[in-house]
Write a structure and sequence with these properties.
Arc Repressor Mutant, subunit A, 37% helix, two-stranded antiparallel sheet, Dna Ligase, domain 1, alpha+beta, homodimer, DNA-binding
Chain lengths: 150, 150
DNA sequence: TCCTAATTAGGAATAATTACTATTTAGTAA
DNA sequence: TTACTAAATAGTAATTATTCCTAATTAGGA
């Protein structure tokens, strides 16, 4: 689900989120939107570096932090020692593939509703739940084929 | 739920898992069993160091890796740049508290059954699911009181 | 008790991320 | 359009968490 979105639209989203729309932020955010495999900061850097050779890792990390802070992107925990990033901030779940290190999105509104209903009754005292997400761990069986939902 | 368990019992568990029961492994595993807040490697080190001043971080990390590999403990992803460890390897969920950085266990067999039933029908193609865990994100409301289930 | 492969201590090396500072830039106001 | 200023960036040093390396030690078996 790559969504082609123009630079001016990206600029508007950044401004709407309350950030200055610098060239670097636009480039980084645009790159992440095109990458649907939850890339690491390093992968993002490799992607944008050819067209933006003067961009620095300091700027990349700081920009990612800013975009996370204003909820334009999300930081995704992983098992390989580095964080990964996600331009999809809607409530969704992740499939962690232990043999390929892939992280895949798993959206399931039926499941969301079941969980929401369940936790409406089952309160946890002194905690304000912000969101509930599933971490589905598994192994990809046929390495030549992709994992597909349903 | 601190379970007081003797060193000889711990030794047996390590041997049963197929590892040599060295002093260091016993100490590290015993310490983690007593710590229920999903400590980082550093916290574990601080805990065991006074009584074991010659233990090295290399050994600690390697031992944690070994214990994870034989499924005696689990590595827990976190948002603060370091991994945390958990002596509870039974299927259970985690509450991530965004304002205090606590990670709490949330066991709920009713929920486990709901999820198991749900994913029995809803297959994901080309994926062998090993486990499904919830990540409950939230904020602790009253910082003077603990979070409590039900 | 001896033997040997596995393990450890201690510290160097690496990887990911953050911090620092002089320079540049986006957005505003004249 | 130009000037201004706070915020952002480039480039790099520093830090943090973790892994790697090697000589010395140890657990468990013969």
């Amino acid at each position: 689900m790559v969504i082609k979105i123009s630079h001016s639209e990206i600029k508007e989203k950044i401004i709407a989120a309350g950030l200055k729309a610098t060239h670097q932020r636009i480039v980084i955010y645009a790159a992440l939107m095109q990458m649907c495999d939850h890339p690491t900061a390093e992968k993002i850097f490799e992607t944008i570096a050819p067209a933006n050779p003067s961009i620095s890792t300091g700027t990349l990390y700081k920009t990612l932090d800013h975009l996370v802070a204003v909820n334009l992107i999300a930081k995704v925990k992983s098992d390989e020692g580095s964080y990964r990033y996600d331009a999809n901030v809607d409530n969704h779940n992740h499939i962690y593939c232990t043999n390929t290190n892939e992280i895949l999105d798993y959206e399931d509104h039926e499941l969301d509703q079941i969980l929401e209903a369940y936790f409406k009754n089952k309160k946890i005292k002194n905690l304000k739940i912000t969101d509930i997400r599933l971490q589905i761990n598994g192994e990809r069986l046929d390495l030549k084929k992709a994992i597909s939902i349903q």
